[in-house]
Design brief:
The complex is a heterodimer. Chain A is mostly helical. Chain A is 73% helix and 2% strand. Chain A has two domains: 63 residues; 221 residues, MetI-like fold (Orthogonal Bundle), CATH 1.10.3720. Chain A has 14 helices and two strands; from the N terminus they run ββαααααααααααααα. A two-stranded antiparallel sheet of chain A has the order 1-2. In chain A, a hairpin with a 5-residue loop joins strand 1 and strand 2. In chain A, helix 3 crosses helix 14, helix 4 runs parallel beside helix 7 and helix 4 packs parallel to helix 8. The longest helix of chain A is centred in the last third of the chain and has 36 residues. The two termini of chain A are 41 Å apart. Chain B is mostly helical. Chain B has two domains: 54 residues; 227 residues, MetI-like (MetI-like fold), CATH 1.10.3720.10. Chain B is built from 15 helices and no strands. In chain B, helix 6 packs across helix 9, helix 9 runs antiparallel to helix 12 and helix 14 packs antiparallel against helix 15. The N terminus of chain B is likely disordered. Classes of the chains: A mainly alpha, B mainly alpha. At the A-B interface, helix 1, helix 4, helix 5, helix 6 and helix 10 of A face helix 2, helix 5, helix 6, helix 7 and helix 8 of B.
């Protein structure tokens, strides 16, 4: 087998060049299969009901109907769903992001008795299935009268997020402890050390984690469906689901698809803009366990 | 909770004597900074777990008294003879077939992508899009894809074979196949991304040395790649199993009432059904506990067994 040194410096044979081309074709076909359902969903949202239900399979809308989107956006429930999801996400991300990063800093850089035990206790919660705590939580929230509001979705998040604490703490361990001592000598209080020295250092990692957390809150369905009874407080995912129940009966699939497309837009856009960081952070969590 | 902090206090003041002023100062601030997640842990994890355990010993409906309806371990013994529980547990485990399928596909695709073919970055994004998509939205979409009369799958099957495809979501067996296909599709991107980063950590000279020793590509894959990505395999297996035991949204969105003869229902679906639809919250809590214990045991076995097959580079 004749081998040539490729421009990349790696060893490349003619056979491997052909193999690359074949693999590219196979991978592309696979990728098309992966995104085709989503593409089809977008196309369906522009079709007429009759075209979707016709016996002849078609992908391109004929005629193009753009009205479904404005119809969805004129549904009060849909708009309140967006508003409710944001009402949950914003305070949770701001306050929870702060409490999580502060705790991560403390777990990584400050010395206090019981530190390891407390950290392990928090980590253990990642293994507890939500199914175990959801029944007592539901009763707790009912007792304090929160089920007729968004509080059951907001309050627990304000205390911080364990996986973010874990991730940021891992991130900070590589920074030398001398940084803390140096800042102390400069007369910084512990909060200033966090705020002025360590927060800027974990800014990138924190932003990525907050984006991922936003996606989690935006896409969450189980907690909102259990804790929120009043239609007025439905989050967007619960609204989408109720649309599905409501409109599938008369086969109004274009409307359901249009609503789903809009609901997916924010997370998709965030992903495309911050792709590199998101993928990096996902990969890290897998490699470090 | 209040009682436990009160009893801890004297012990702490004894320790304090040993700490210098500076260290004490650091300890105070350190504890204050972690107080928030720790209080959250007590309120929303520790307390509910204790509560759930006590409730699981009672014929509790959520509104009656837990203690007046105390029935001991009856919920647990009932669970063992509850055929519906075993059926949903079986379905939950069957869905986990998707875990190895996703891992094998993910590894193969990652190996292909790791060859630095131009254009691969866009493909990687395409495979990853389902992961970040809303589960409810894509479950609605796939319920439509699997639709017996008008769905994408059966339209394609009819176009190719001329025969009508299976009743994907209505048939007791096919609904499981449909769910597995859906879950593999949804999660494949995660396996690819993690395997890719695992592959990038393998030093190139391992393969060069293998080539010099006359190893074929398949041998190198078998003896270098697979062992050295085993930490990723382990991570995917653990998270896959923990997540697999908790499947709920897919079932509730894609089929009505757990499917024909409850054939699509998972344990968490049944638990939710019992606790929130039939108000049998004590029974639901018992089921949740059994589920948690099963997850714990399976995870522990995996961690114990990992020394046998999980290798690390160095």
């Amino acid at each position: 087998m004749a081998k040539t040194i490729g421009s990349s410096g790696g060893v490349r044979s003619k056979g491997s060049y052909i193999l690359d081309k074949v693999l590219l074709v196979v991978l592309s076909l696979g990728a098309i299969v992966m995104v085709f359902p989503l593409f089809y969903m977008i196309m369906c949202s522009f079709m007429t009901k009759n075209q979707i239900l016709s016996a002849n399979f078609s992908v391109i809308p004929n005629p193009w109907v753009f009205g479904m989107y404005s119809e969805v956006l004129h549904k009060g429930l849909f708009l309140s769903g967006i508003r409710n999801s944001l009402t949950v996400a914003i305070p949770v991300l701001v306050v929870g992001g702060f409490t999580s990063s502060l705790a991560a800093f403390s777990f990584a850089k400050l010395r206090f008795r019981g530190r390891e035990q407390m950290f392990l206790a928090l980590l253990a919660t990642m293994m507890i299935p939500f199914a175990v705590v959801m029944i007592p939580q539901y009763v707790m929230f009912t007792k304090v009268g929160w089920t007729n509001s968004l509080l059951p979705l907001i309050i627990p998040g304000l205390f911080g997020n364990v996986s973010i604490i874990f991730f940021l703490r891992q991130n900070l361990t590589s920074i030398p402890n001398d940084m803390v001592d140096a800042a102390k000598i400069d007369g910084c209080s512990y909060f200033q050390i966090y705020y002025k020295v360590f927060l800027p250092m974990m800014k990138g990692a924190l932003m990525t984690q907050i984006i991922l957390w936003f996606m989690g809150i935006w896409n969450d369905y189980l907690a909102p469906t259990i804790f929120v009874q009043n239609e007025k407080w439905y989050t967007l995912q619960v609204v989408i689901r109720s649309f599905n129940d409501q409109y599938a009966v008369n086969s109004n699939y274009p409307l359901i698809m249009a609503a789903s497309v809009i609901s997916m837009l924010p997370t998709l856009l965030l992903f495309f803009f911050f792709q590199r960081y998101i993928i990096e952070s996902m990969a890290l969590s897998g490699v470090k366990g | 909770m209040a009682a436990s902090t009160a009893t801890k206090k004297p012990a702490k003041s004894k320790e304090r004597v040993k700490l210098s002023g500076m260290a004490l100062h650091e300890q105070r601030w350190g504890r204050l900074f972690v107080a928030s997640p720790f209080i959250g842990f007590c309120l929303f994890s520790a307390f509910p777990i204790v509560f759930a355990f006590v409730a699981s010993l009672s014929n509790w409906t959520g509104t009656n008294s837990i203690f007046q309806n105390f029935i001991g371990l009856k919920n647990y013994t009932d669970l063992f003879t509850d055929m519906r529980f075993w059926k949903t547990m079986g379905t939950t485990v069957i869905y986990m077939i998707g875990i190895p399928v996703g891992m094998i596909l993910g590894l193969l695709i990652a190996v292909a992508m790791n060859r630095k073919i131009p254009g691969v970055k866009i493909l990687r994004t395409m495979y990853y899009v389902p992961v970040i998509s809303s589960l409810v939205a894509v479950a609605i979409l796939w319920a439509w894809v699997f639709n017996y009369d008008y769905g994408l799958f059966n339209t394609i099957i009819k176009a190719i074979t001329g025969a009508k495809g299976p009743n994907w979501l209505g048939d007791e067996m096919w609904v499981k196949v449909a769910m597995i296909i859906f879950m593999v599709w949804k999660g494949l991107g995660t396996s690819i991304i993690l395997y890719l980063s695992g592959l990038q950590n393998i030093p190139r000279d391992y393969y060069e040395a293998a080539t010099i020793d006359g190893a074929t590509g398949i041998q190198a894959f078998r003896h270098i790649t697979i062992p050295l990505v085993s930490p990723v395999t382990f991570y995917l297996l653990i998270t896959g199993i923990i997540g697999g035991f908790q499947v709920f949204v897919e079932v509730t969105v894609m089929v009505a009432n757990g499917g024909t003869n409850y054939s699509a229902a998972t344990v968490v679906y049944y638990l939710w059904d019992k606790a929130f639809k039939s108000q049998q919250m004590g029974y639901g809590s018992a089921m949740a506990f059994v589920l948690a214990i099963i997850i714990f045991i399976v995870t522990a076995i995996n961690f114990y067994g990992q020394n046998k097959w999980v290798k690390t580079i160095d």
